[in-house]
Amino acid sequence: MRVLLLFLDGIGLGADDPSLNPFAAARLPTLESLSGGYKWLNSAPRIESERATFIPTDACLGVAGRPQSATGQATILTGRNVPAEIGAHYGPYPDERIRAILAADNLYSRLTERGLSCSRLDAHPPHYLAELESGKRLRTALQHAAYVAGVRLPSLEALQACRALSADFLGDGWREVLKLPDVPVHTPQEAGALLAELARPHAFSLFSTWVTDEIGHHRDLARGVAFLERFDTVLASLLAAWDDSEGVIVITSDHGNLEDVSHRKHTQNAVPTVIIGAQRGEITPHIRALTDLAPALLRLFG
Description:
By secondary structure, the chain is an alpha/beta fold.
């Protein structure tokens, strides 16, 4: 059994308004094939498609206010209602309370304690990793969970050796924004096939992109459409290379944002969760909220 978790920061199920919601404006045939032909909107039902189960997923968890990254991500990886435990949605980075929850128990720790191989598949620039090590930069909740379990974040060297992908999937941002010329730039087809290959040796792999949340905060509709269409093409290639009999792919998020560019804030919308694979029926009946994801994935590993 293997699990590949694709985490897209800040995507929710919003209104059918192409002037405000990139999911309404973009052409996304792969995503929509996984949701029974429905666009990823607040009108999309929980539904079984030929290959996947699409689940509108509660990110508010009974706590007032707008969901935030630290508590949402910690909930995904622990199965605990972290915002309820600390009394509020909190983020973007975990404070001492949330770090303690992650250190006590998280999906990475559970699996590595059983001798199962876990990995992160998204590379991080050298200056970023140096700032994490020095304490100048805080780890996200996803990063802290990996850190306490001894799972390393991929580096520039991993990206150069095609042992990881960049958060933009293709690597062009490393060249254009970070001005690092010696990194590969993949086609979407190459990136999807590489994701499948990189996940194959591990019981649990996580690929995280912050780009979706950043686009939402900048209210950039056109860029949101372009990035979602990029992801759709990458995902098509990943699905072509993935063996559904050997494991599941999970797509999910921590809170809404990108689906409403009328403002810069997070939303209280449900987030999309998609479970792909032959064994998805073992876990999908148990998933309604972000608290259900970690227990469901542990169930797959017995």
